[in-house]
Amino acid sequence: MPLYEYELTEGDCAVCGGKFTLCRPLSAPPLTKCPACKKPVRKVWSSFNSPKTVSFSDAKKAGFTVLKRLGKGEYERQ
Ligand SMILES: [Zn+2]
Fold first, then answer.
1. Which residues neighbour 65 within 8 Å (Cβ) at sequence distance 6 or greater?
2. For labelling, which of 16, 17, 44, 62 has a CA lying 20 to 30 Å from the CA of 77?
3. What percent of the chain has pLDDT over 70?
4. By residue range, what is the domain housing residue 72?
């Protein structure tokens, strides 16, 4: 099962520490609440924040659209 990282979108949690990882089957519905404290969470796409492990070309190969910022509010499809 893939491992997903989540963080609370608001508040703090003594149970999960505000950030936690969960093993979930691909077929599982998206997790919206911490199973421990029931506060809203969002999935953390940690791999996209670390270009050392995922390059833009890898992202493109995986089918993602890579946008280059041209200026204020302008983006170009790569
Ligand atoms: Zn929690």
1. 77, 78
2. 44
3. 60
4. 51-78
Ligand 1 centre to CA of 46 (Å) is 19
Calculate how far, in angstroms, residue 36's C-alpha sits from the geometric centre of ligand 1: 5
Do both 38 and 13 map to the same domain? yes
Measured in Å, residue 52 CA sits from the centre of ligand 1 at 29
Distances, alpha carbon 6 to alpha carbons 19, 32, 46, 70, 72, in Å? 6, 9, 10, 31, 30
Residue 7 pLDDT > 50: yes
Residue 31 CA to ligand 1 centre (angstroms): 12
DSSP annotation of 48: G
How many domains is the chain partitioned into structurally? 2
Instruction: Give the model confidence (pLDDT) of 16-46 as tens digits.
Output: 999 998 888 888 888 999 999 999 999 987 6
